[in-house]
Specification:
There is one protein chain. The protein has one domain (5-51, 61-160). It has five helices and no strands. It has helices spanning 10-38, 42-50, 68-94, 101-127, 132-160. Helix 1 (10-38) runs antiparallel to helix 5 (132-160). The longest helix is centred in the first third of the chain and has 29 residues, at 10-38. It is elongated and about 70 Å long. The two termini are 17 Å apart.
């Protein structure tokens, strides 16, 4: 198929722009929540899921270890939501004319791999070894970089690229 985003009808480009801006607002809110709960720190993520260390038996902990039911619902909701978000964004990005071959292929596949690694490492961090928080941080960073690069390139093509 040889159709590019800049060739889409104006109404479709407007709808895609509105969709991406709405999704991006939601993604930024999610990043804000992540900062609020972990300050983007692997150490604080470990504490959030594994619980606070207690030094005194009468100390009230700030974070209790997350129960398995909460981890199930968190991973379930996030894997489904992120997969749907990236299915939309990647489908639109497929029609982008700005990147070709290698980088484009990487961006079309990478988020789906990092979704599984990120939320799998959450389980590993909680139940195997806290060090998996660093794997979660790297894969999550790749997810968000992929998202913002693809959305930025799509919007650039919509607003600035001409036939």
């Amino acid at each position: 198929m040889n159709v590019n985003i800049y060739q889409f009808p104006k109404q479709l480009k407007n709808m895609i722009s509105a969709l991406l801006l709405s999704l991006t607002f939601g993604v930024i809110l999610g990043l804000g929540f992540l900062y609020y709960t972990t300050s983007y720190s692997p150490i604080e993520a470990i504490e959030r899921y594994n619980g606070s260390q207690v030094s005194d038996e009468f100390e009230i902990v700030e974070n209790y270890p997350k129960p398995i039911s909460e981890i199930f619902i968190t991973t379930h909701n996030h894997i489904i939501a992120f997969t749907l978000i990236f299915t939309l964004v990647c489908t639109i990005f497929y029609f982008s004319s700005i990147l070709k071959n290698g980088w484009k292929n990487f961006l079309l596949i990478e988020p789906f791999i990092s979704i599984i690694i990120s939320f799998g490492s959450l389980w590993l961090m909680r139940f195997v070894n806290p060090g998996f928080a660093y794997l979660m941080a790297v894969s999550s960073t790749l997810i968000y970089l992929s998202y913002f690069i693809m959305v930025g390139l799509i919007l650039y093509e919509i607003f600035f690229k001409k036939s």
